[in-house]
Amino acid sequence: MENKRGETKLSKVAVVILNYNGKDFLRRFLPTVIERTGDDAVVWVADNNSLDGSIDVMNEEFPDVKLIENHYNAGFAGGYNMALKRIEADYYVLLNSDIEVTEGWINPVIDLMNQDSRIAACQPKILGYDNRSEFEYAGASGGFIDKYGYPFCRGRVFQKLEQDEGQYDDPIDVFWATGACMFVRADIYHKLGGLDHDFFAHMEEIDFCWRLKNEGYRIMVCPSSVVYHVGGGTLPKKSARKTYLNFRNNLSLLYKNIPSNQLISAFLIRFILDGVAALKFFIEGGMNELVAVIQAHIYFYRNLGKLRKKRRALKQGKVSNVYQRNIVFDHYLFGKKKYSDLNKEYFS
Q: What is the reported pTM?
């Protein structure tokens, strides 16, 4: 169950910030969101049962901002699913609480999406908050995936972040749009059942975008809209919990969505590569991360029955913008450090 403050009225665009113990981010970034959104959208905050006084901050400092209170922490996926059921709009903007938006950030994306009803989701260009000339990890200038499920971005391959020199300023079709700032058509969001709540957090947007693409929709990036992301607001970048969620959810999204004729070969390679990753953690002294990888695989095996039911309920097929090589090998063995280093002939 949820409580809400303010009535839900039809609004073309609803900017929805999901908050969990982020009162400092609310104080820091919400005023700018309100100011730079203006009349282009209605701003909402959906609180995931924070324990840090976030609700008091909202009531005392932002009484005019529409507020939804989730009565438990359902993570990024479940939290948004609960909140967006209560909000009527044509477009939702899922916006992290640790993002600084820029002037006129909404209209370029909406204008692009209005050009084609098949564009179901879109993201702006994501730059670093602390280093504003550098792409930010969670999205950069649009997300892609390789044939084994490894995600990367225009502007970020694994931990390698590029400087933004305008090299990725063209709006193009991508494989996934970041959940840090994702514009999505509201009717399609609900039609597909929203984010997979079992993911809790991390990679749920990639799973969602893959489902969109399997249904024939397009995903785009609109770099003429720019936002700045702090990153790591809920979990630090180096976290065993984050490692667990990333490995667990990546296996789940791969199993749910990959075409049947690629399923066995992809997972045989993934099991080997995940084993190598675990060994690397061990050699580097990351015992907690090693355990996290093992736990992620245990979860996957134990939940195969549930995942199989999800897979059977979904469409799978050949979709665009999948890198038909192994980005792990290309990056670490063959020195492909940047998106621009990759041969575009390998993107199907």
A: 0.94
